[in-house]
Amino acid sequence: QVQLVESGGGLVQAGDSLRLSCASSEHSFSTYAMGWFRQAPGKELEFVATISARGSATHYAPSVNGRFTVSRDNAKNTVSLEMNDVKPEDTARYYCAQARGSAGVAHLNDYDYWGQGTQVTVSS
């Protein structure tokens, strides 16, 4: 069973930056794509960003494209989400997830393992 542990959430003001991290217990971490999703109160879980297994390809939701950057360190089994110019609508619980394959994917059904999430709250 793979364990994913997110960290870095908190309360920030609009326009601030925040960096989320996710540590994985997967022994073959470098062979799986990773993703970030978020869920705001009363809303469905939505895709945020994904990165391929080797880190060569990334894909973002239109709402965060240009503001968020996903990256990974396969030597440390970690994936990160750099969030810049955050907005109140970015307020949500953020989850990292491990995909079933090596290519980055946007659909939550393509992910097998999920972390417990970390809360991000952006005040206006």
* Fraction in helix: under 10%
Query: What is the percentage of strand-forming residues?
Result: over 45%
Total strands: the figure is 11
The rounded distance between the terminal residues' Cα atoms is 39 Å
Radius of gyration: 13 Å
Computed structural class: mainly beta
Overall morphology = globular
Helical run tally? 0
Q: In this structure, how is the largest beta sheet organized? A: 7 strands, mixed
Question: Quick check: average pLDDT?
Answer: 97
Low-confidence stretches: none
Order of helices and strands: EEEEEEEEEEE
Report on the structure:
Helices cover 0% and strands 48% of the residues. The protein has 124 residues and is mostly beta strands. The strands form two sheets. Strands 2, 4, 5, 6, 9, 10 and 11 form a seven-stranded mixed sheet that branches. A four-stranded antiparallel sheet has the order 1-3-8-7, with no helix packed on it. A hairpin with a 6-residue loop joins β4 (34-39) and β5. The chain starts with a strand and ends with a strand. The model has no long low-confidence stretch (mean pLDDT 97).
